[in-house]
C-alpha cells in the first residue's frame, strides 16, 4: 500500500525561517498531513506556518501575510471555502486547495471561490511542492521586459493587460482576476483567432502536462463572467466544439 505521507525528517516541527523562498501557511486539521506537508515545504526552502482550523488560519494570516496558502477543504467549523473567501477579502493570495474526496463537485467548488490549484488526498508531498512552486512562480511579478516585446502589455476588444503590474482592464475599468484567470486571459489575448484544446491550455497556462481538465473549464467560465457582456452568450471567449476555446478579437455575434 502506498504511503503518501511519509515524513521527510524526524526532527522538530518546522517553523518560519528568515531568508526562505517564501512564506506558506498550511491549514489542515490532520496533524500528520500538516506535519508532512510542512516538512517537505521546509526542506524545499519555504518558511512554513501551520493552522488546524479556519479561525486560527485567519489569525495567522493577519499576523504574517503568507505568499501562498495550502488549504484543506474539509475543516471543522469553518470550511476551506469560507476561509478562502475571507482570506481574499484582505487582498489576493494564491491558494492551493486540498480535498479528501474525489468528487468533481468538491474540486469545482474550490476553483469557483478562486483557488489557484487543488490536490486530491492522498497525494504525493513532492507533487504538492511542485504545485506550490508553479503557483508562486506565476504569482510573482515578472522581471521588466521590453514594452513592445512579446510579453509586454497588449489588448483587444476593449480588454488590456499589463503583465508587469498584473493588471487587466475592460474598457478602462480594472478587472478583479485571480492569478490563473489573469494568465488565461493574457494567453488568449496574445493568440487571437486560434483554437486551443483544454490540454494545450493546461500545458501553456498552468505549465502542467497532466491534471483534471475541468480546471480549465471552470476558469474559462469564471473568466467569461468577468469579461463578457453576456456570459451566457459569449462573444469573446468562444467554445469551439470538439476542440476547445478561441479568443475572438472582433467580439461579433456568432453565426
Question: What this model shows, in words?
Answer:
With 255 residues, the protein is α/β, with parallel strands linked by helices. It folds into two domains: 23-139, Response regulator (Rossmann fold), CATH 3.40.50.2300; 154-247, Arc Repressor Mutant, subunit A (Orthogonal Bundle), CATH 1.10.10.10. 36% of the residues lie in helices and 19% in strands. The protein has eight helices and twelve strands. The protein has helices at 31-43, 54-63, 80-89, 104-112, 125-139, 179-190, 198-206, 214-227; strands at residues 23-27, 47-51, 68-72, 95-99, 117-120, 154-156, 159-162, 167-170, 173-174, 195-197, 237-240, 244-247. Strands 2-1-3-4-5 form a five-stranded parallel β-sheet, sandwiched between helices. Strands 6-7-8-9 form a four-stranded antiparallel β-sheet, with helices on one face. β1 (23-27), α1 (31-43) and β2 (47-51) form a beta-alpha-beta unit. α2 (54-63) packs parallel to α3 (80-89) and α6 (179-190) crosses α7. The chain starts with 22 loop residues before the first strand and ends in an 8-residue tail after the last strand. Residues 23-136 form the Response regulatory domain. This is Two-component system response regulator. The modification 4-aspartylphosphate is found at residue 72. GO terms for molecular function: phosphorelay response regulator activity; transcription cis-regulatory region binding.
